[in-house]
Each structure stands twice: as C-alpha cells, then as structure tokens.
Amino acid sequence: MLTEHTCLNEEQIENYLLRSIQEPEIALVEEKLLVCEHCREIYSQMDTYVVEMRCVMRIARNQATELSVRHKAAAS
C-alpha cells in the first residue's frame, strides 16, 4: 500500500504504463507521481523503454509482413 513516505515500485509503474490497473490504484499512482521526484524519474525511464519497445515491435511486424509478401510473390 502506498503511503506518503513510500515510493512506487517498478511493478506498480509498469502496470500503470500498461493500463493494467484500475481505480483507486490509478489515483494513488498519479498522486505519487505528482509529489515524488524519484517516482517521476523511474516512471520517465520506464515510459521511454515502453515507447522504444513498441517501436521495435512495430518495425519487427512490418518486416515480417514484408518478408511474407516477398515470399508469396516469389512463390507465384
């Protein structure tokens, strides 16, 4: 449970970033991010990582689709 003196852990921040938590935990996480610089720093690092991973996954899906199209074209 979050208190005024405890920081968010990585799992709480990850769940918040991935939108896999619900109220009232959302409100607690957001409140903590407003008042705690350390939590904001960890959030920022994790957010950057999540954004980068989504980009990598998008590129990988596009490359897989391209290869599939090339393979089908070569087979016909």
What does this structure look like?
76% of the residues lie in helices and 0% in strands. It starts with 9 loop residues before the first helix and ends with a helix. It has 76 residues and is mainly α. The chain has one domain. The longest helix has 39 residues, at 37-75.
Defining key terms:
elongated; 76 residues; mainly alpha; 3 helices; single chain
Tell me the Rg in angstroms.
Answer: 19 Å
Instruction: Domain count, please report it.
Output: 1
Characterize the overall form: elongated
Query: Number of helical runs?
Result: 3
List the helices and strands and how they pair.
Layout: H1 10-17, H2 25-35, H3 37-75
Task: Give a brief outline of the structure.
This protein is mainly α and 76 residues long. It is 76% helix and 0% strand.
